[in-house]
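Hi V.,

Quick status before I head out on leave. The structure for the redesign project is tokenized and pasted below; the design run finished overnight.
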């Protein structure tokens, strides 16, 4: 029953949409609400989610997937929250701490306090809100959205980290361009 409820939350997240641009792409309304709460442009928040956990659902439809883990650079997509939770618990029990979790792919090692419990970390709205707060924090540091987007993925100051941040920001910008076209 929990898997059905989890799937229902995700379906509502996808189906309940709010057009946030004058073009064809629609963004689920919960992204709009969370973006407003955190003073983030909706297209940026949604584009980050697409870059982090997006997958092709069917031809022409690309959406963030809430039950995604990334362990050692390998994305793992699970069919339900419970399955993702079981996967997350397995890796945590093995001593793995650097795991990116959920829609916004928030790293457990660095943000476990903000994520709460492993079960809570996989709740789509909570995960998106946590990611939005992290993104907003990076914007407060940089004062520029493109730099904040890059730092969301790679906040370090070493040359390779800065390069990863720029590459990531450019990838998110491509999603923004697609969303608004």
């Amino acid at each position: 029953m929990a898997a059905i409820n989890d799937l229902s939350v995700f379906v509502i997240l996808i189906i309940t949409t709010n057009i946030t641009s004058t073009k064809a792409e629609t963004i689920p309304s919960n992204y709009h609400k969370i973006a407003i709460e955190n003073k983030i442009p909706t297209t940026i928040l949604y584009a980050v989610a697409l870059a982090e956990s997006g997958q092709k659902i069917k031809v022409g439809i690309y959406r963030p997937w809430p039950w995604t883990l990334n362990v050692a650079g390998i994305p793992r997509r699970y069919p339900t929250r419970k399955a993702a939770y079981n996967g997350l618990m397995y890796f945590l029990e093995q001593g793995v701490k650097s795991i990116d979790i959920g829609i916004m792919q928030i790293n457990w090692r660095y943000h476990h306090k903000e994520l709460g419990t492993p079960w809570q970390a996989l709740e789509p709205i909570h995960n998106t809100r946590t990611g939005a707060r992290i993104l907003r924090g990076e914007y407060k540091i940089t004062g520029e959205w493109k730099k904040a987007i890059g730092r969301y993925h790679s906040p370090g100051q070493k040359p390779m980290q800065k390069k990863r941040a720029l590459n990531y920001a450019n990838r998110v910008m491509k999603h923004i361009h697609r969303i608004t076209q």
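Above is the designed sequence. The radius of gyration is 16 Å.

G. will cover questions while I'm gone.

Best,
W.
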